[in-house]
Write a structure and sequence with these properties.
Helix content: 25-40%
Number of helices: 7
Strand content: 25-35%
Radius of gyration: 23 Å
Order of helices and strands: HHHEEEEHEEHEEEEHEEH
Distance between the termini: 28 Å
Largest sheet: 6 strands, mixed
Structural class: alpha+beta
Length: 307
């Protein structure tokens, strides 16, 4: 397997290198010849199109190939649950803090789940310190919608005393390195962090409204499914899976597909014309494969943590 992996990596690198030469040959000759970086800066679509026409991307991946994924549990010891996820170069860390709260009058038996995505200045020069930017707020809402639609967490299990006391899970998702598909990494990080949450047993006296926590008796959070999001974009009329930041900027259409238990649970498309059924099926099949892979990875990590 190692030899085969090295061979495939060498072939992709060789293909990418040959296309660098092809693109370079297409540059105008003469004393004012542009180098490759200048050509890419001035003509980014043309630069990518030369690669895409031959079913390869500048980073050596095939058009529908996903980047490597890595997950780590319990990376923040002061949090009630945490995980860090790396998709290619994109890195998102999730920390969950559980606090007691008064339930909503319209849902007295339900707790709260509050995800918040932070695009830190460390992740990209495009972001500045201060209040969440519009992009971060859109990501936060998309994470909430994806988790809710998949019914990943039963909010009724967060209820301690109906109408009186519930758990509120504040889920802070911080992007440490932004190289595309932040939403994908954020949802995987949040779901992974859910698997590390252990809530203390709470005794609530409805007469005196006093609470008593028993940290020695902790109950794991029940995670009903593992929703996984996969993003796709259309660049120069070609479908690309798991795009980088550069590819996202060139995209005419962006599509995100969330799958849980082998079925689509959340779908969102922005820009461009509606995709045909064949393209949608291709995206869904790819998303299902990733969901199986991530689910298996999390289950393996859980078994190692419990052994």
């Amino acid at each position: 397997m190692t030899f085969l992996h090295n061979l495939l990596s060498w072939r992709r690198a060789a293909a990418a290198h040959s296309f660098v030469n092809i693109v370079a040959k297409r540059l105008p000759c003469g004393p004012k010849t542009m180098d490759l970086k200048t050509f890419k800066l001035l003509h980014p679509v043309k630069y990518y199109k030369d690669y895409l026409e031959n079913n390869i991307r500048p980073d050596g991946r095939e058009l529908e190939e996903l980047r490597p994924l890595a997950i780590s549990f319990d990376v923040i010891k002061s949090a009630d649950g945490s995980a860090i996820v790396k998709v290619g170069n994109t890195t998102v860390v999730c920390g969950i803090k559980a606090e007691l709260a008064t339930p909503n009058a319209l849902a007295p038996g339900h707790g709260f789940l509050v995800p918040n995505v932070d695009l830190s200045p460390v992740s990209s020069p495009s972001y500045r310190p201060g209040p969440p930017c519009d992009e971060a707020q859109v990501y936060s809402q998309s994470v909430a919608d994806a988790i809710s639609n998949a019914r990943c967490i039963d909010l009724q299990e967060l209820c301690i005393s109906p109408g009186k006391l519930v758990w509120c899970l504040y889920c802070d998702l911080v992007c440490l390195d932004h190289d595309g598909c932040v939403l994908d990494a954020a949802i995987i990080a949040l779901v992974a962090a859910f698997h590390t949450v252990n809530l203390p047993t709470i005794q609530y006296n409805s007469d005196t409204e006093e609470t008593e926590a028993d940290p020695s008796r902790r109950l794991p959070l029940t995670v009903d499914c593992v929703p996984v999001t996969t993003s796709f974009v259309m660049v120069a009329g070609r479908l690309i899976a798991d795009p980088t930041t550069e590819e996202e900027k060139l995209a005419s259409t962006t599509l995100t597909v969330t799958v849980s238990d082998g079925k689509m649970s959340f779908f969102n498309q922005s820009g461009g014309d509606p995709m045909d059924s064949r393209t949608l099926k291709k995206c869904t099949d790819s998303a299902i494969k990733r969901e199986r892979s991530v689910k298996k990875m999390i289950q393996t990590m859980q078994r190692k943590a419990s052994s």
